[in-house]
Design a protein that fits this description.
Blueprint (H helix, E strand, L loop, with lengths): L6 H18 L8 H16 L7 H39 L3 E4 L2 E4 L11 H10 L2 H12 L4 H8 L3 H16 L1 H9 L5
Antiparallel strand pairs: 1-2
Helix pairs in contact: 1-2, 1-3, 2-3, 4-8, 5-7, 6-7
Protein name: RNA polymerase sigma-70 region 2 domain-containing protein
Function: Might take part in the signal recognition particle (SRP) pathway. This is inferred from the conservation of its genetic proximity to ftsY/ffh. May be a regulatory protein.
Family: Belongs to the UPF0122 family.
Length: 188
């Protein structure tokens, strides 16, 4: 190691080397994170360089390039893990089902994600619905009645009952409403 050169001198002579490696590997570095990684690699290479092992420039290039590759691999792994976790969470929440319309596709909440035997969840749900909407939930979901049967029982039309169901489904598909239902927070 050349003890006469300070790291500041080494940095001034080799900072372009870091930029060159970043450019050569086509890395987008708007926040200078990869440059910082290269700078740390340059520091480590400066500290561990042994002149009898080869030229300093070759060693610096090797260390900087490999450190940048390691950083890219870590970020790629992190992005993959994050993407898989988000996909799994979405799939668990929606059961993979989507409703497609002119506005785009919207995830449909899986009905079985609501705990059917927990009365506290039903009470929270009831507090968020109108009487007609709750009637639809109670008759259609809990008692497994058809829209026609509900309409006869409530002395209304089948279309009105279907509308109550659409309103309930809209509330259940809203992510904020589902959080309220699943965690028991009654503020919507």
């Amino acid at each position: 190691m050349d003890n006469q050169l300070t790291f500041d001198d080494v940095f001034e002579q080799n900072k372009r080397r870091i930029h060159y490696q970043i450019h050569k590997m086509h890395i987008q570095d708007p926040h200078q994170e990869f440059f910082q990684e290269g700078l740390i690699a340059l520091w480590n290479a400066h500290e561990s360089y042994q002149p009898d092992k080869g030229p300093m420039a070759t060693y610096f290039n090797y260390i900087i390039r490999n450190r940048l590759i390691d950083r890219m691999r870590r970020e790629t792994r992190w992005e993959d893990v994050t993407r898989k976790a988000i996909h799994e969470q979405t799939t668990q929440y929606t059961d993979g089902n989507y409703h497609r319309s002119a506005e785009g596709s919207h995830a449909i909440a899986a009905y079985y994600s609501l705990p059917l035997d927990d009365t506290s969840h039903w009470e929270v749900l009831r507090s968020q619905l109108t009487d007609k909407q709750w009637t639809w939930v109670e008759c259609f979901i809990i008692h497994d009645m058809s829209c026609k049967q509900i309409a006869e029982q409530e002395h209304t039309t089948v279309e009105a009952v279907k509308n109550w169901g659409r309103q309930v489904k809209k509330k259940l598909n809203d992510p904020h409403s589902c959080e309220v239902l699943l965690h028991g927070d009654t503020e919507l």
